[in-house]
Amino acid sequence: MADGDGLGEAATAAASPTAPAPGMSPPLGWRERLRAGLAGTGASLWFVAGLGLLYALRVPLRLCENLAAVTVFLNSLTPKFYVALTGTSSLISGLIFIFEWWYFHKHGTSFIEQVSVNHLRPLMGGTESSISDPGSPSSSKESETNRQNLSECKVWRNPLNLFRGAEYRRYTWVTGKEPLTYYDMNLSAQDHQTFFTCDTDFLRPSDTVMQKAWRERNPPARIKAAYQALELNNDCATAYVLLAEEEATTIVDAERLFKQALKAGETIYRRSQQCQHQSPQHEAQLRRDTNVLVYIKRRLAMCARKLGRIREAVKIMRDLMKEFPPLTMLNIHENLLESLLELQAYADVQAVLAKYDDISLPKSAAICYTAALLKTRTVSDKFSPETASRRGLSTAEINAVEAIHRAVEFNPHVPKVKWQGIKLF
């Protein structure tokens, strides 16, 4: 890119008229000198012109009389006025704060921030000034578009986490396209390093090999490293996890490898529990082995669901949530919602939502759209467009519409839907 830019600049310089040598400047005419002087003293001239205009209009506008009247008014104000002014401003500020709290609790975002970002900033031309050459309007437009995209971009991890070998690679075989971008792969690699590595990996040779495997970008190299770790230790649970995720081409093969990983992971987890109080390094090792065990059980539950054993998947997920309640980072509750919806157990879905659809927890598209689905389902059977046009929407119908708008606002990258023939957004 640097070479290409240099060639472009050379071509532009060759096509343009010859520039004067450094230190030499062409003689300026009186018009150019006048423009340069005006440009340098523009602010001062505007200030002087404004003062002169006020002085010229002092009699028609009666500035002296009005200034004297304002002075008399301010001197006649009593302390009661300032007390009332302070109380009124405090009341208005309190009402604004209560409205902001209600709006944030309902929509998960600030109303004032939305208005300023979506409405006021475009009117003011943005908060950042772009300096660009007069001859390159396209570059300035692209930079402005990029800044707008960056300010509106939100990155949320996909709770589905499909299997790379059995699902993503199958998509590649069928369509000839790569479903995962480099950014997706980078996020996944960060998660793997967070969940499956710790500072004590050097104590076990197989974990040292796997630490390098999770950082490897080439899938064949990762798979080869997993086999090397199994040669060093046949009970290396993370090696089985990697093979189940990437080498297995079917869900059946992935489940078989995850069962081997579960057997090895439970053995390692019990050892770590016995040694956890010996040193801080052993505590870190227990946390890592706990993450590995929970991840394996969650993936086994997802395998069971994909193979049609939905009730078994629900049981595994419920047991995991009871045994390891702090580990919400793996989004087990979202996978549980999907399984319960497949069973049409709507009461159980509502119970899970009541626990996890909280303002203190990070929201997700799965939670927002599931809540909208349940609220829409309760009113869709009896909904009539003619009746609604006459009497208006009921409270339950308004709640359903607001839930749909909330879900779409959180993640707008879904097809637009219609509810009983009425477009809701």
Automatic annotation (TrEMBL):
Pfam families: ST7. Residues 1-18, 128-140 have a biased composition (Low complexity). The keyword Transmembrane applies. The keyword Transmembrane applies. It is a multi-pass membrane protein. It is found in: Membrane. The chain crosses the membrane at residues 34-57, 81-104. It comes from the Eukaryota. Keywords: Membrane, Transmembrane, Transmembrane helix. Residues 1-24, 127-149 are annotated as: Disordered. Belongs to the ST7 family. This is Suppressor of tumorigenicity 7 protein-like. It comes from Vicugna pacos.
